[in-house]
């Protein structure tokens, strides 16, 4: 196994907690229940070889649609697309050993003043003040509580579109936790709207 593959596998097991292969078929029933709870649309699909199952839920929220996906090999992911003409970028992700070294050497990053969060996560943003307004106490608490792997918000000014993507660990197999995470993402949307980043 090459060094790059080994690093990817170790990151998968210990950081993103994807654990390689997990049969999501066992999650079908409560995903359907979650979809019903939020008046969403639940779909099951497979890859081209029909070996891997992919669960999807599309949940309407105000003017937007929250898409949840999880497959046998990929963790729970949230995706929301927006209309936006504001050029802004935010990336929150686990701070790996290389980033810790760069930080000691003086690499600048946004910190939010919570020692647990700041030690675990790295925030890169095109506007540090805006990042602190988005990464509020609610975001900090949910990242720590649910061990969220990453969140990114990026803008394509040519298309006047932006996208929010968050990746959660594979260990969530409880209906109430997914429901809490959906509500959490709804609050993020409301905050982005209040900050006038999205239309």
Indicate the percent of residues in helices.
25-40%
Major β-sheet profile = 8 strands, antiparallel
In terms of DSSP E residues, the strand content is: 25-35%
What's the multimeric state?
A: single chain
How are strands sequenced across the largest beta sheet? 1-2-3-4-8-7-5-6
Estimate the mean pLDDT confidence: 86
By helix and strand content, what is the structural category? alpha+beta
> Can you tell me the number of structural domains?
1
Overall strand count: 8
Rg, rounded, reads 17 Å
SSE order, one letter for each helix or strand = HHEEEEEHHEHHEEH
Number of helices: 7
Outline: globular
Compact overview of the structure:
The protein has 7 helices and 8 strands.
Describe the model.
This protein has 199 residues and is an alpha+beta fold. The chain has one domain. It contains 7 helices and 8 strands, in the order H-H-E-E-E-E-E-H-H-E-H-H-E-E-H. An 8-stranded antiparallel sheet has the order 1-2-3-4-8-7-5-6. A hairpin with a 6-residue loop joins strand 1 and strand 2. Helix 2 crosses helix 7 and helix 6 runs antiparallel to helix 7. The longest helix is centred in the last third of the chain and has 20 residues. The radius of gyration is 17 Å and the shape is globular.
């Amino acid at each position: 196994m090459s060094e790059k593959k080994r690093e990817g596998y170790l990151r998968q097991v210990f950081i993103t907690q994807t654990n390689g292969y997990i049969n999501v078929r066992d999650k079908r029933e409560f995903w359907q229940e979650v979809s019903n709870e939020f008046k969403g649309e639940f779909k099951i699909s497979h890859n081209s070889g029909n070996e891997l199952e992919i669960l999807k839920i599309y949940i309407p929220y105000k003017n937007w649609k929250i898409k949840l996906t999880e497959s046998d090999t990929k963790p729970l992911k949230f995706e929301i697309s927006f209309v936006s003409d504001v050029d802004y970028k935010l990336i929150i992700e686990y701070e790996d050993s290389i980033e810790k070294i760069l930080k000691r050497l003086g690499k600048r990053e946004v910190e939010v003043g919570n020692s647990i969060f700041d030690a675990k996560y790295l925030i890169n943003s095109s506007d540090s003040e805006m990042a602190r307004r988005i990464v509020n106490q609610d975001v900090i608490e949910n990242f720590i509580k649910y061990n969220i792997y990453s969140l990114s918000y990026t803008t394509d000014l040519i298309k006047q579109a932006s996208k929010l993507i968050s990746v959660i660990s594979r260990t969530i197999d409880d209906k109430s936790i997914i429901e809490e995470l959906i509500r959490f993402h709804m609050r993020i949307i409301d905050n982005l709207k209040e900050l006038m980043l999205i239309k």
